[in-house]
Amino acid sequence: MNTFPAAAARPAGGLLSWPRRAEAWLDGHGRKAWITAMVLGFIFFWPVGLALVAYMTITNRWSKTMFGQSCRKSRNVQWGAHRVYASSGNTAFDAYKAETLRRLEEEQAAFEGFLNRLREAKDKQEFDAFMDDRARTAREAGSSDTPPAQA
């Protein structure tokens, strides 16, 4: 399970013996121990967590195999664009599929055009209502400001 070099090859004793023992213990317990130590480091004293992240990065403990296949597979949708246009091996089905996809793309473009025209009509209607309201307000304000004519 452990692909890192053994910490036991280093000389024992001295000032740095406890970090080496801790590293060996974490390596012996695998990825989950390293992640747990990092999280606890952030919880209790954030520089320790940050130091563990830096150490894990420098010693390449963030490897491709660290997070396994399940994370990568969940992000890849099986019916992605690369699979839609792939050949099935049956020419009749591939021709039908190509024609259907072309027709759907045309319908999608037509529908998007319809929605754009609908939005433009709604925007024009709202703008016209705003301008009418503004003109009506200006007329009412203008008529109340003018003094009555004397005969």
- Helical fraction equals over 70%
Extract low-pLDDT stretches. 69-78
Number of strands: 0
Average pLDDT taken over every residue = 78
**What portion of residues belong to β-strands?**
under 5%
List the helices and strands in order: HHHHHH
* Shape category: flat
End-to-end gap = 107 Å
Question: Class by helix and strand content?
Answer: mainly alpha
> What integer value in Å does the Rg equal?
35 Å
Continuous helix count? 6
Major β-sheet, in short?
A: none
Describe what this molecule looks like in 3D.
By secondary structure, this protein is an all-alpha fold. It has helices spanning 17-29, 31-44, 46-58, 68-75, 81-84, 91-145. The longest helix is centred in the last third of the chain and has 55 residues, at 91-145. It is flat, with a radius of gyration of 35 Å. The model is unreliable at 69-78 (pLDDT under 50).
